[in-house]
Amino acid sequence: MKIKFLILTFFICFSGVLFSQEEEVQFEANASKKKLGVNERLRVEFSMNKDGDNFVPPSFEGFRVLMGPNQSVSHSWVNGKRSFSKSYSYVLTPLSKGNFTIQQAKVEIEGNTYKTTPIKIEVTEAVNDPNAPPSADDIADDNLHLVAEVSNGSPYLNEAVSVVYKLYVSPSINVSNFLPKANPTYNNFWSQDIKVTRFQVENGLYEGKQYRYVVLKRVVLYPQKTGSLEIEPLSLDVTVDVPTNRRDVFGGRLFTQTNKTVTAGQRIIKVKPLPEAGKPAGFTGAVGQFDFDVITSKSDLKANESLTAKIQVTGKGNLKLFNLPKLTLPSSLEVYEPEHEENVSTNLSGMSGKISDNYTIVPQFKGKYPIPGVAFSYFDPKEEKYKTVTSQQSLINVYEGPSSAAVANEATRDSDAINKQPIATLGDQFRFIKLDTNLYAKEASVFFGSILYYILLLVPLLLIPIAILIGKKRAAMAGDVVGNRVRKANKLAKKYLSEAKRNLGNKEAFYESLERALHNYLRAKLKLVTSEFSKEKISELLLSKNVEKQGVDNFIALLKSCELARYSPSTTAEMQSDYNKAAEVISLIDKQFKS
Questions:
Q1: Which residues in the chain show pLDDT less than 70?
Q2: Is there a domain that residue 421 lies in?
Q3: Per the structure, how many domains does the chain have?
Q4: Among candidates 309, 516, 291, 264, which has minimal Cα distance to 388?
Q5: Whether residue 117 sits in one domain with residue 145
Q6: What pLDDT score was predicted for residue 411?
Q7: Which residues, at least 6 apart from 272, have a Cβ–Cβ distance to it below 8 Å?
Q8: Per the confidence metrics, is the pTM higher than 0.70?
Q9: I need a surface site. Which of 20, 189, 190, 353 has the fewest CB within 10 A?
Q10: Coil/strand/helix, residue 133
Q11: How many CA atoms lie less than 13 Å away from 105 in the CB half-sphere?
């Protein structure tokens, strides 16, 4: 008897726990349509899932109340679970054309006040049949939305901005297919698409209502110009299945199909210039959060051996869009043009990774050579201030090899000063010298006066002007900073063109390497810095260099083709055609270009 009592008590407590679980309060407003003619009627319903008191409707500004409030209450039990619904409904008619908002309604539930989300209503011209149900196009318009979500509407110059394009679909309709109609172009931006590998359906809120959405496109932008910059809209042609009031023989609802064009709308980004106050003298446009260092591969070596000095920047920011500081070394060290390396990845938050310039250094003489500290400046948009990082000074010790003339003379002078001592003069100190000699004539050497003798005598004299010319040529090349940059960029363009050729068939890798080749070629020819890299600026400068308009148009069209091809299908034949066009356009501009 006692055991039965305990079991009964347990079930009573367990049932009490189940029924004590509180259901989340919901208070919503729904309109029969979002768009109607001035001669149509509108039904608005305010519903709650728990009983409430002191219901306060909105003022319905812009509408006349024809009926209401009509109250409805329902109770139901499903699988032992109780559900409750209570609603207030109104029938309205608009007073005039225009855009109106049905404001929030209020109700008190269990001592708390709850409010609905405002509803926007568009009233148009009178319709022919105001009592007709909404058409499939009207339903699709109200339940299908393409949105461009911008991470930052007011960035600094060269600060990363992400744009995510989402297609929101109401649960009341289905989307069977969609195709892009107009892809946005990002003029005055450096852009990088973040590939969407598959379309994944997720749930989310749009204007306070539950929707399903799909991420269609993601792109990271770095503004290259200040002021108000426009992002052109993305447009889609969408095939929509809209439910009807008809049903098939099995009771299933029938759908009608319609095509709609949706657009994300034009977006304006207001780009702020970098502050002039506190800008360092060596600032080259780096924006982000970075670490900086100068790393040498070795510190002790012999003459004519080589070492590598690496100027490296790591972190997060516009890594591909600024120049690294130059390494200044003693003139007695032979230094080759640096090799640029990039290991950069791009995601929605922007670029991250590292870039470096690798200098090959070959010392010619024995000695100790200092590598002075190098300063790197960047702008931190989070803290909104400039920062400068300076590397530590290091020393190269060349412990074996010939000494330069200057070093040798200095060493000789030091040695003489240390070892010079007074010498005592004695009468017999030169007795070891033999005074009587037996001299005889030595046979004349065959080498003296021979052809080889005169050749060896004249060759050094001939080499002197050649060495002077070579020295002047090397000095001119070392001082020609612009020319060195041009030669380096031309080599890079050839390198990337060959890389693009190897990537034929791989769309992403091909167009990325092809676009890099075109950009490096322009930097070499036009001596552009990153902030000037816009299509309008390119056209203006090429035309000013006597390049024909047809060649300029072909070059701009090729840049646009590279941008568009990243998110549109491309065949190997199209890639080969674009590669051939790039080679032809570069060759044509080289022939016509006048510096």
A1: 1-23, 77-80, 129-133, 404-449, 478-496, 526-533, 566-568, 594-595
A2: no
A3: 4
A4: 291
A5: no
A6: 37
A7: 154, 155, 156, 157, 226
A8: no
A9: 20
A10: coil
A11: 25
